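Mods, move this if it's the wrong board.
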Amino acid sequence: MPAIQEGELRFTFPAGAGVLRFDGNSHGLSHCMKAVDFIVEFADFHLFVEVKDPDNTQATPQRRREFASQLAQPTFPRAIARKYRDSFIYRWAEQKLDKPVRYVVLLQLSTLQAPQFLAVDQALKRELPVSNTPPSWSRPLVEGLAVVDMTQWNALCVYGTVERV
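Not the wrong board. Structure tokens:
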């Protein structure tokens, strides 16, 4: 089964999925475009994944608190939305978006409560039009969008599993 590690988190995907590490210098436009961490190709859709893991073992309690306070600022969902949009444009220009695209932000911060996850999810959906798109659009910019933690990711069962290593 294909797997990829992002920091301390190891993602394992169902057989047949193709995984591409996308963030970094490899795409050649990191000086002007942001990128999601990785892209997974499934039979029926592409999955763009952004990972934020302030619970990593190297993070201090102060850094976790700072990150939690940043979540309530409008700059956070804008930055996460930009990563999606730039990645979408890049893959579109490569003619590699032949299927619907879903976007999942894995946000692993154990101090967050359900209402805070919902607030981040809703703020991101305001930045990326998931519904209420113009009538002239013949297809959506993003088919689905979710902000989840490791437990929620694993409960979905669709995208595989994630564990801390």
